[in-house]
Hints:
Blueprint: H1 4-26, H2 32-63, H3 66-92, H4 95-100, H5 102-133
Helix pairs in contact: 1-2, 1-5, 2-3, 3-5
Amino acid sequence: xxxxxxxxxxxxxxxxxxxxxxxxxxxxxxxxxxxxxxxxxxxxxxxxxxxxxxxxxxxxxxxxxxxxxxxxxxxxxxxxxxxxxxxxxxxxxxxxxxxxxxxxxxxxxxxxxxxxxxxxxxxxxxxxxxxxxxxxxxxxxxxxxxxxx
Length: 149
């Protein structure tokens, strides 16, 4: 079972990776190698996080808590759109394409990172608290939970 602390930590790492990529992309001087490396770090971080997140979302679909399922479906529609946009962004922005069209890369990166940040904020504000409330995720990892008395 996933826990809120680890999911929030993943979100903090995603925000940091996105901010790092954005900072590189905002530079006037093109840095395609650094940008592509930062993009790959963000992609790896996002992939790991999505696997963890999917674990509790799939679990809930199997056990069905209607209130949470409704909220998750609302987030899921926006999330599915974002996943499509992220996939397009990753396919488009190879290191060579970044090198050839730095201005467009800067614009696309600002846009996609903003969307990722919005998704993280929405999950932190609504989805995760709801998952915690319905017992779909724990507050703490198993090893950090206080012993029962």
